[in-house]
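Show me a record, fold above all:
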Amino acid sequence: MPVRPLLGVAAGAGLLLFGFAAAAPSAASAVSAAPEESVTVDSKGRMADGSVTLSGTYRCHGGSGPVFVSSAVSRPSSTLHYSVGGTKAVCDGKKHRWENTGTVPAGALKKGPARVEATLMELRPSGLMLLPVVHAVQHRDITLAED
């Protein structure tokens, strides 16, 4: 096997592992965001035609890389999360609304209780790589309603 593809796979796997370790704190620990940085999740989400829409607010200050609000949803008792898009954040210290819409597999979710995680994350340049830096995280139980 040629060396270049092997190096690419190894580098990609390393970045993924490092990114997950940096971006996913354990349930027992809290992300220490600056007090003026936050992300919230609205108490209701919407479902329509296989898509889910989640929303909330965020506040952040300038970073050295792009910042995004990402979200994921799951059934309350499940460990399987479904990514629901991402929104580019404007980090000017003001409170802004975010809304993410994404599709989930048919039958994966139903109206009623759900669990959402929203993450305010920066992709900070570090040499030749972009490293994920978490600014704020919120976990919240919500209600999914059909449109």
Summary: The CA atoms of residues 117 and 139 lie 4 Å apart. Helices lie at 3-23. The chain has one helix and eight strands. The longest strand covers residues 129-146.
